[in-house]
Amino acid sequence: MPNASPPSLLRRGLLALAAGALAAPALAAYPDRPIRLVVGYAAGGGTDLTARAVATRMSAELGQQIVVENRGGGGGVPAISSVLQAPADGYSVMFSTAAVLVARALGTPMAFDPLEVLVPVGLVGVSPNVLVVHPSVPARNLQELQAYGRTRREPLRFGSPSISYTSHFVGQELGIEVEEVRYRGTGPLMTDLLAGRLDAYLIPLPGIQAAVRSGELRAIAVSYKTPLAPIPEVPTTAAQGFPNLISFTWTGLELRAGTPPEIVARLGAALNAALADPELRRKLGESGVEATERTDPDSFRALVLEEKARGEAVIRRFNLRE
């Protein structure tokens, strides 16, 4: 007669079977309660408005409300920390941007690597940066800005709402000297730019669209491969002979590492369905966001890694630190 299984092993086996039986319906029911979407910026800004538009459309797709929670500041670290403190069950979603990767590359202390503690769901879209200058700068295109920069005795003064690498990236690609002037937020920066105390600024369209329309600032290039629908008259950097001067911000959805793949896939399917909605695409396009056609975790991660490498190369070259 064969030996009976030890009671402890038998109990473990029964518990495992019971857990499996419970897990399958739980995953199949996802989501069965509201989802929290954490945004690392204050309410009312461009990133927040994009997140809310996507959340509204995805809520309809999922049949559950997606509630936006703003956790601004700290280069995105507080927002990610909030997601990491929640269970890996798909009910706390990170609305990610490149900010935290840039902050880490510039030496911001953080107890985690964002690429290791979060898993990608999908790319929402990209916001090409627009290069604007104060009207006192005698340049209406990149060639004229390049010539002007090379004849000046002092560097062109670029504003930055925090430490960044984009100003130096412009200088590198145009072959001119620039000085990055750092501010705590866009408010004081825009005050100085509109007053002519700064020469230029590289920023997504929503932050400067009104000033461009009024003539207070001059947009001379869209730093992308294709023009922006709200300002079709502004040529791209590629069309002006600077194909490597590509600069944009990206936004996407990520989850805490360890989230069941079925939940990642469910959110990804909802995101793709939302992005296929012409009304959402129109709304995002009006705010300068080029919504992705279709997304998946692998293509999203590939774009993130490519942009991370581009930024880190500039940071190393100019020895930039926070």
TrEMBL record:
Superkingdom of this protein's organism: Bacteria
Transmembrane segments: none
Keywords carried by this UniProt record: Signal
SUPFAM superfamilies according to UniProt: Periplasmic binding protein-like II
Family annotation (CDD domains): PBP2_Bug_TTT
Signal peptide region: 1-28
Pfam families assigned to the protein according to its UniProt record, in alphabetical order: TctC
Database matches in PANTHER family: BLR1237 PROTEIN, TRICARBOXYLATE-BINDING PROTEIN
Family to which the UniProt record says this protein belongs: Belongs to the UPF0065 (bug) family.
Protein name: Tripartite tricarboxylate transporter substrate binding protein
Organism: Siccirubricoccus deserti
Lineage: Bacteria, Pseudomonadati, Pseudomonadota, Alphaproteobacteria, Acetobacterales
